[in-house]
Design goal:
It is built from eleven helices and 19 strands. The protein is of the alpha/beta class. It folds into two domains: about 210 residues, TIM Barrel, CATH 3.20.20.10; about 130 residues, Lyase, Ornithine Decarboxylase, Chain A, domain 1 (Beta Barrel), CATH 2.40.37. Helix 6 links the parallel strand 6 and strand 7. Helix 3 packs across helix 4. The longest helix has 17 residues.
């Protein structure tokens, strides 16, 4: 079985690095949606609590309920998908806080607050240019009016391009967020910055920042060296090593044909394990620091690599491991080789690896 090693101490250190980027008065919330970016919400959330996190964001209500069981009653849990009328009891039982994204959700939640005779906590998300989710300006007056019945914890929005240094959208969204928040929600704490936004400008921090990818070792500043600690190592078990002859093919549909006698290895992982099919004939694994190119198509459970260029006496054997993510190749680099991003690599890691959680 291939092995995924997750360094919980590195996650804790990454939280502290992000905390050091902000003023003491700024809350650093931890985004742990999608099973903590594929790394396991239970051990990761506990590690983040150990590092000082007391506010968490998830995408779905089911994620929030699971998280509450892990981290206990003290932390704040915010649910990005918002609120529907039939979910009121679940929100109340687990002490969850919805992020309300449109006027109907605010009105429905305010009605629940009035029914219960108390001001229920909430965040309102407003649209500032990403055009993904959040209330447009035409609805903000009605939302502010309805929200008078609520305990508004924050007004938030989300950067579209903060991973691109100097992108004009960053300033544009910041300005729009400031003016809309002050016009409709004066005095309410504010939150805008994601992982990359934290590093771009202190002006983006406001009252709360919401890092996700940086906690898990991905690079929030792609134009420079990664300031975060690496979190995962992914080592793939070699099942077989053999010699193939010139002219023979490798993998489904014969997309690679050997132009000379070659030594290949087959490893136990594939696209069912989060290694995209797009790595076919373009990705690289590593043996003791030496690159081993992927030959043929990545299949569901297996990948073949070429050992022919390895120095003499360095050939691996069945039972050894090749590095997919580690000292020689980051999750960001593996994602780039696959034509995607490190986020997709992490969140696609399946449950078929032997998972090892390191605590220091």
């Amino acid at each position: 079985m291939s092995v995924l090693t997750i360094d919980l101490a590195a996650i804790e250190e990454n939280y502290r690095i992000l905390k050091q980027q902000t003023a003491p008065s700024c809350t650093v919330a931890a985004v742990v949606k999608a099973d903590a970016y594929g790394l396991g919400i239970e051990p990761v959330a506990v590690a983040l609590q150990n590092a000082g996190a007391s506010s968490f964001f998830v995408a779905l209500l089911c994620e929030a309920a699971a998280l509450r069981r892990v981290i206990g009653p003290q932390a704040a849990i915010f649910v990005l998908e918002g609120f529907e009328e039939g979910e009121a009891a679940l929100y109340e039982q687990a002490d969850l806080i919805p992020v309300l994204n449109h006027v109907g959700a605010v009105q429905n939640y305010a009605a629940q607050a009035q029914k219960r005779g108390k001001r229920l906590p909430a965040i309102i998300q407003i649209e500032t240019g990403m055009n993904r989710i959040g209330a447009p300006e035409k609805d903000l007056s009605a939302m502010a009016s309805a929200a008078a019945a609520l305990d508004l914890r924050y007004i938030m929005s989300h950067f579209a391009c903060s991973d691109e240094a100097g992108h004009e959208m960053n300033t544009h969204q910041w300005e729009k967020f400031r003016t809309r928040a002050s016009a409709y929600f004066a005095g309410i704490p504010m939150s805008l910055a994601n992982s990359s936004g934290i590093f771009r400008s202190n002006a983006y921090h406001f009252d709360m920042v919401r890092p996700g990818m940086a906690l898990y070792g991905l690079n929030p500043l792609p134009e420079q060296e990664n300031p975060m600690r690496p979190v995962i190592c992914l080592d793939l078990k070699i099942l077989q090593v053999k010699t193939v002859q010139k002219g023979e093919i490798c993998g489904y549909n014969g997309t690679y044909r050997f132009d000379k006698e070659s030594i290949i290895g087959t490893v136990s992982a594939g696209y069912a394990d989060g290694l995209p099919r797009s790595l076919s004939n373009r990705g690289t694994l590593f043996w003791k620091g030496y690159p081993c190119p992927i030959r043929g198509r990545v299949s569901m459970d297996l990948i073949s690599v070429d050992f022919s260029a390895l120095p003499g006496g360095e050939l691996p054997e069945a039972g050894d491991y090749l590095e997919a993510v580690g000292a020689n190749q980051s999750a960001d680099a593996l994602g780039a080789a696959a034509g995607t991003i490190g986020y997709e690599i992490l969140t696609s890691l399946g449950r078929r690896y032997r998972r090892i959680y390191k605590k220091g």
